[in-house]
Amino acid sequence: MASKSGNIFIGVGGWTFPPWRGVFYPEKLAQAKELSYAASKLTSIEINGTYYGSQKPESFRKWRSEVPDGFVFSVKGPRFATNRRVLAEAGDSIKRFYDSGVLELRDALGPVLWQFAPTKKFDEADFGKFLELLPRKLEKRDLRHVVEVRHDSFNVPEFIALLRKFAIPVVYADHGKYPAIADITGDFVYARLQTGKDTVKTAYPPKQLDEWSARFRAWASGSEPEDLPRADKASAKKQPRDVFAYVIHEGKIRAPHGAMELIERVK
């Protein structure tokens, strides 16, 4: 019998952030224990360091060893693959990324996030070539990919059709400037909540946390929230989907508290 709902994973971006010490992390917690502590309170973390440079296999193995079963990392793909004029030439960068040991995360490996610069405009042919380069399976393991675009030129039905052809989701960005695209184009949903405030103890006020948790449950059950903007009017097939959501705002001091509140709400 099929599950009636996908899993909902909620967390923050990274785990090494000095202002969290004494606010999220206990005052005297050893820095070496921060990941295991964060993983005991959250259900996912977005790894940022992979965006800026290559990591080593032993690092991925160590990170996996410090989180409980069922915890999932999403991993940012390298900027060397996405910050280029011709995306069709990203093949070597994508290969180096996977050769660096990402699969050492084993069952804790979630989606790989490919993030594009705000200046990158939609070029259907070239973006399609990039999507073709993304491996769908390595070492008998199915891989998940999601793209985050930040230019308004992507907010068109043609982009949605392209993503659906490859069954790759687009990040829903709750952001002041980036396009908000809630179209479902793959078998999971990925949201980045970036308008929280450090003046609010839980990053987002309770009413907004309630609204987001309702959206997460709708996505997980296979529905589409009616209050989020879409680039294409066509609805996706109704089916349970995993949801990955990260509270990431500018100051980010209160991000873990926002994530923990959302986890409580979706239980």
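The record above closes out task 2.4. Task 2.5 opens with a second protein, given below.
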Amino acid sequence: MDLYCNIRGNGEPILCLHGHPGSARTMAVFSERLSRQYQTLAPDLRGYGASRVRQPFHLEESLGDLVALLDRQGINQCWVLGWSLGGILSLELALRHPKRVRGLILIATAARPVGNHPRPSWQEVTNTGLASLINLVIPGHPWVIRHLGQNSLYRYLLQQHTPAAYHRLAKEGFWAFVNTSRHAHQALNQSMAKGYNRLPAVNQITVPCLVLCGEQDRHITAQASLETARHLPLSESRCYANTAHLLPWEIPDLLLNDIEAWLSNHASAMTVTPDQ
């Protein structure tokens, strides 16, 4: 599938893969800054955003889409940054197409994803809808955050309910949710229903990996992320206190400082083998 892709900057390429629900727009927190030094490629995955589908698909088909995207851009090898579902696809890309991956930056994700999200109450669901709609009109308003956001499902996605995070929710998160197709929901549910677990395989990934997680993440727990880090042969990890699944929108500067420092330590002329 010919994916829609937002491309910024020049330099070594970084493929930025969004979560579920998500879109290229939700990766702006990374591409806005990283594109100053690198070339960032943020696609809408199959069934998300502008990469529309009319028929059901399997999540694995997204990997072929990503390889085709790299081929079209003439990119033999790149860094891959994945958030949540994007991190799972990053791991799969490294396992199935290892010569295309320079290194992995894995955010709020795991090779064996485990969550501890409680069953939502009707009040939380109602408050989530109200908070989302009012936040579109007056993004980051203190009353919306205090009276609706902190008493909605956002309480499990965020620990730091900052105006900046709610601006991201209004500008990027809401529209990503609206533009996630039913086929994308179905593909993810089918994959997770099978009991996804790639822990036994990730020791085959021999490129540098950076694993970042939020201590209070309820969707993919920090323990699951750190378990993945322990199984990756060449990994570093950071677990940030008082953050949750949307930690890139909670602590963007701290997170990006750590990513840039790690990239700086590992970036060099990319190795290209003759058969690439």
